[in-house]
Every structure is written in C-alpha cells, then in structure tokens.
Amino acid sequence: MLRPFPTPAAVSPEEDVIRPAGPCERIARLPADRWTLRETAFWLMPVLGYFAFPGYLMLGSQILIAGLFALSLDLIMGYAGIVSLGHAAFFGTGAYAAGLLASHGWHEPLSGLLAGAAAAALVALPVSLLVVRGQDLGRLIVTLGIGMLFFEAANKAAAITGGVDGLSGMEIAPLFGLFDFDLFGRTAYLYSLGVLFLLFLLCRRLVHSPFGLSLRGIKENSKRMASLGAPVERRLVSVFVIAAALAGAAGALLAQTTRFVGLDSLSFQRSAELLIMLVLGGTGRLYGALIGAALFLLAQDILAGLDPVYWQFWLGLMLVAVVLYARGGVLGGAALLAGRIRGKRR
Amino acid sequence: MAASVLGVLFDGVAYGSLLFLISVGLSVTMGLMNFVNLAHGAFAMAGGYLCVALMQRAGMPFLATLPLVFLAIALVGAALERTLYRRLYDASHLDQVLFSIGLTFMAVAAATYVWGPNQQPVRLPGFLRGQIHPGGVDLGAYRLFLIGLVAATTLALHLLMAKTRFGARVRASVDNRAAAAGLGIPVDRIFVLTFALGTGLAGVGGAVGIDVLGLDPTFPIKYMVYFLLVVAIGGAGSIKGPALAALLLGVFDVAGKYYVPEAGAFIIYGLMLTLLAFFPRGLYGRKA
C-alpha cells in the first residue's frame, strides 16, 4: 500500500543518527532502543510541569492517564494495525475493577492497579480471539459491538456498578503506606507519572523487540508474515491482551486518582476520543500517543469550557481535518518536515 | 401464543425491513468503493429531521415529504461524495473510519444545535395509525406500510441492478473496479450516483423510521452497530445478503425485547458475536 508518509520503521529517532544506505538495511538493527537525549528532554517536561503548574495537577494527571490509554491503543493500532472502536471496554473494565476493590475494603493502590490491569487482560482474551479472526470491517464491528455490550452490561448491573450514577465512595490508602492522595492531586500526579513512565518503558522495549518487529510486519503484510512462519494470530492475540492490560491500568489509575468511575469510562465517545488523540499525535511512534493525549486534553479544557455541544462539533472537525490535511499527526508532520530539511541540505 | 409469535415475527420483519432500507446504501458503497462509512446513519437522521421540518413548518402531509426527503438527502450525499468522500477512496480504512466518525460527530452536534436534544414527534396520517386484524392477528397498519414500502423499494432496486444498463455497470464496478474503468465504464459517475442513491434511501429510511426507531441527535451513534452489522453479516456489495441479514437481526431483536426484556440489547450483540464467529466474511461473503 502506498502511503504519503514513510513507515514508522523508517523514521524512528534512532535511525536519524546513522543514516541508512538502503531501505532493506533500515530494519536490521536490533536492539534499536538506545535512549536519546531528545527522549530525556521529553520526560523532563512532566517533571517540570509538576513544579511549574501546581494549580493544574488534576488536569496533568488526566493527561498522563489518557497518555497511557493512548499508548495502549498505539500498540494494537499503530504497530499491529488493528483498528479498535471499543478500546474503552478495557479501560472501563480496569476502572470498575479497581473502583470496586477500593469501595469494598481493599484500599491499597498498587495491588488495585494490578487488579485493574489483570481484569482487563482477562476479558480481552476471549475478545481478542474474535477480533483477530476478522477482516478490517469485521474487526471494526466486533470492537464496536463489544464496547457497546460492556457499556450496556455496566448500565444494567446498576446494583454493582452504580449504573448511571456511577461508582463512588471509594477509599484509597496512602501510596507505599507513606504518601496520602491529597486534595491538590500532587500524589495522584506523581503516581500517574511513575506508572506511565514504567509502562512506557515496557512498551518501548516491546516494540523494539523481535516481537514488536513482527507486529509491524503483520501490519504491513500479514499474509507474507504468515508464509515467513510467523504465528500471526498468536502474535495479534498477545499484543491485544497486553494492550488491554495497559488500558485497564489506565482505567484503574483514573478510578483511584479521581475516586469515581462513571459509565462514560465505557462509552463510545471515549473510544472515539482515544482514536483522535492517537491520530492527532501520530500513530506507531509511542510518543505520538503521549503528545496527542496532551494536545487533546488541553484543547478540550479550553474549548469544552465554552459549550459541550460545540465541543463535539470541533472534535468532529478536528478529525476530518487531521484525516484530510495532516495524516500522520503532529509527529508524522514533524518527521516529514525534518526529512525535507535534511533532503535539501544534502 | 401462536398469535403472539406471529405478531412478533411481523414486527420483526417490519423492523428488519427498515434496517435494510437504511443499510442497503451502506452495503453498496462499501462493496463498490471499499469505503467504511460510519456516517451513514447521519444521512438517515438528516432524512428524519427534514421530514419533521417539512411537516411542521411547511405543513406537508407525511407521505408527500418522502420523495422530497429522498431527493434532498441524495443531493447532499452526492455533494459530500464529490467534495470529501472521493478524496479518501484510496486511504486506509483507519482514515476512512476517523473521517466518518468526525462527520458523525459534526452531524450530532449540528442536530443538537438546531433541534435540541429531545425526541422529535411525528404525526402519522390517520390511515397509517391503529391496527388491522386479519384472522385474529393484530397487525400495526404502519408496520404493514413499512413492509410494503421496503418490499417495493427492494423490487425496484433489484430490477435496477439486474435489468438496466446502469445496474450492469454498478455490478461490473463492484466486481473489479480497475477492469470496469478500463472497459470505458465511467466508474467515477457510477460512484456518485450509487452514493446518492444509497444516502437518499437512508434518508427515506430515517424519515419512515421515526415512529419505530425514534429521532434524536444521538441516532447515528445509537444505531451505528445495527447498520454495520447488516453489512458485515450480509456481506458488502449485494442486495440479497443485507436483506437477509436485516430481517434476521430485526426478528431476533424484536423477539428478544418481547420475550426476554431484561436481556435488553444483549440478544443482538450475542447474535452478532455468534454470526461473526462462524461467518467471519458474512453470510454471502465474498473475498475482501
């Protein structure tokens, strides 16, 4: 398939250092995950943000959590090529699992987080078997249908989930038994940042591993990968479950830091917004997910203050504009620009 | 008992016909242009609102609005196809999905802005209200009208596709777009016309569906799964497949809501998962 942008494999920052000679030599370096200065600078930003904007820490942790959620979608969409319209199902599962634990007497946050991730992974396994089998259209519908099914289930099971009113009244014990979750969201922010960073490292390692490379291969041409001997379905199931666990962790983080789980954590709107974040930032680059989440939530914070109805309109317009004029998102555009500048210099 | 089974079957068929009327355009465009158009429901919604507006503001009778709705929505569809959709025919499915979700959101927001978030009422003409009782079975007159309308439309569509030159060209383009274009078939024009036809039918479906499906700004999102399901199960690019799928969905959905109301929407999702697990390519699936 012809694409207007180079594939992610060809533009990841590592390749910028040593300019490869031909297309076939580009993928061969393993492990291609040396930590660059740019990345250190990137991760210093949220740390600086903590000191610079003490009044916006709640929004900050929302961004970090959305970033983690978008990261999980990037794994299956940007790397494995599975478009999901119902990824919120796993986010919500994690949120409800952690929320239910916390409101029924288990207050320790880290184990709650693990439980959220595990619950999401557990429900993702049977779903993944269905998703992996289908074609593009089938996958869209299965993921969309699963998302709506989970929403409906949480809505009907109001005795457990609180239904439309949401789940509240949870208590979270201090982190490591030391740091209380305070009203200003200081602990929440640092907790989210820590979890995001650790899981980001995991994702980064994963996509640079042979496993990650085989996912890219499957995305580019699954038939060829199958004939090369790669277990296509098993790979896709694995990455789907891993991504669901990450989404569950993001949901659990949200539940623990806001001490509330609403039905909207399972809604189609959330799945769609997630897609927007990822596409806005750029797919298949991990950092795109984080940047997209930040841009999206900042824009939402500014625009949605005007009127929620208008916000949905702008959301739609943003999507259409990104698809028509900015495929590849912020990072894709930046990479293209950098490529052009380098091309001129040569 | 027998009467209730017949009644449920009848309602299910009526509901399924409506789903078919709305989704058939989606099936054809998906088969013809390989375009995943999640905004299809927005055209149906636009048809519904146009019908309501024509009746309330211009005082037109219900039936007289339908041809106007068809024409207007078909024109809107053609305009959007020319300006926006055609630019994405060669894009990836992801881009198409995002683009059409974007359109859907804009339509939802616009409808909320103009008409507010509430359900729109529709005043059906007297002879379409009430019930008739042939042989002791209660049949809603409006449901009967729906089935008749859709049966007539389907027959017309079938004749159009099977007997006319235009239909032959559409079928050729569905089978192999490049070869059809090479043979001198104006594939471009075929695309616009089929897109307009499909969206126009969706608009009519939205208008006649107000009484059954309701009409509020969330319509395109609420029923998105149903429309996609019809196409996914029936297979894209045909008329027979989606018709069968729509009837199946309609009957199961109505039967589920009637006999096990507490299961709610689960019946339809369960059916979806079962069918997609066993027929990943749809009932009349063709190789993608």
Automatic annotation (TrEMBL), chain A:
<feature type="transmembrane region" description="Helical">
    <location>
        <begin position="110"/>
        <end position="132"/>
    </location>
</feature>
<feature type="transmembrane region" description="Helical">
    <location>
        <begin position="188"/>
        <end position="207"/>
    </location>
</feature>
<dbReference type="GO" id="GO:0015658">
    <property type="term" value="F:branched-chain amino acid transmembrane transporter activity"/>
</dbReference>
<dbReference type="GO" id="GO:0005886">
    <property type="term" value="C:plasma membrane"/>
</dbReference>
<feature type="transmembrane region" description="Helical">
    <location>
        <begin position="47"/>
        <end position="71"/>
    </location>
</feature>
<feature type="transmembrane region" description="Helical">
    <location>
        <begin position="311"/>
        <end position="338"/>
    </location>
</feature>
<keyword id="KW-1133">Transmembrane helix</keyword>
<keyword id="KW-1003">Cell membrane</keyword>
<dbReference type="InterPro" id="IPR043428">
    <property type="entry name" value="LivM-like"/>
</dbReference>
<keyword id="KW-0812">Transmembrane</keyword>
<feature type="transmembrane region" description="Helical">
    <location>
        <begin position="275"/>
        <end position="299"/>
    </location>
</feature>
<dbReference type="InterPro" id="IPR001851">
    <property type="entry name" value="ABC_transp_permease"/>
</dbReference>
<feature type="transmembrane region" description="Helical">
    <location>
        <begin position="78"/>
        <end position="98"/>
    </location>
</feature>
<protein>
    <submittedName>
        <fullName>Branched-chain amino acid ABC transporter permease</fullName>
    </submittedName>
</protein>
<keyword id="KW-0472">Membrane</keyword>
<feature type="transmembrane region" description="Helical">
    <location>
        <begin position="236"/>
        <end position="255"/>
    </location>
</feature>
<dbReference type="Pfam" id="PF02653">
    <property type="entry name" value="BPD_transp_2"/>
</dbReference>
TrEMBL record, chain B:
<dbReference type="GO" id="GO:0005886">
    <property type="term" value="C:plasma membrane"/>
</dbReference>
<protein>
    <submittedName>
        <fullName>Branched-chain amino acid ABC transporter permease</fullName>
    </submittedName>
</protein>
<keyword id="KW-1133">Transmembrane helix</keyword>
<dbReference type="GO" id="GO:0022857">
    <property type="term" value="F:transmembrane transporter activity"/>
</dbReference>
<feature type="transmembrane region" description="Helical">
    <location>
        <begin position="190"/>
        <end position="213"/>
    </location>
</feature>
<feature type="transmembrane region" description="Helical">
    <location>
        <begin position="266"/>
        <end position="284"/>
    </location>
</feature>
<keyword id="KW-0472">Membrane</keyword>
<dbReference type="InterPro" id="IPR052157">
    <property type="entry name" value="BCAA_transport_permease"/>
</dbReference>
<keyword id="KW-1003">Cell membrane</keyword>
<comment type="similarity">
    <text>Belongs to the binding-protein-dependent transport system permease family. LivHM subfamily.</text>
</comment>
<keyword id="KW-0812">Transmembrane</keyword>
<feature type="transmembrane region" description="Helical">
    <location>
        <begin position="6"/>
        <end position="28"/>
    </location>
</feature>
<feature type="transmembrane region" description="Helical">
    <location>
        <begin position="62"/>
        <end position="85"/>
    </location>
</feature>
<keyword id="KW-0029">Amino-acid transport</keyword>
<keyword id="KW-0813">Transport</keyword>
<feature type="transmembrane region" description="Helical">
    <location>
        <begin position="97"/>
        <end position="116"/>
    </location>
</feature>
<dbReference type="InterPro" id="IPR001851">
    <property type="entry name" value="ABC_transp_permease"/>
</dbReference>
<dbReference type="Pfam" id="PF02653">
    <property type="entry name" value="BPD_transp_2"/>
</dbReference>
<dbReference type="GO" id="GO:0006865">
    <property type="term" value="P:amino acid transport"/>
</dbReference>
<feature type="transmembrane region" description="Helical">
    <location>
        <begin position="141"/>
        <end position="161"/>
    </location>
</feature>
<feature type="transmembrane region" description="Helical">
    <location>
        <begin position="35"/>
        <end position="56"/>
    </location>
</feature>
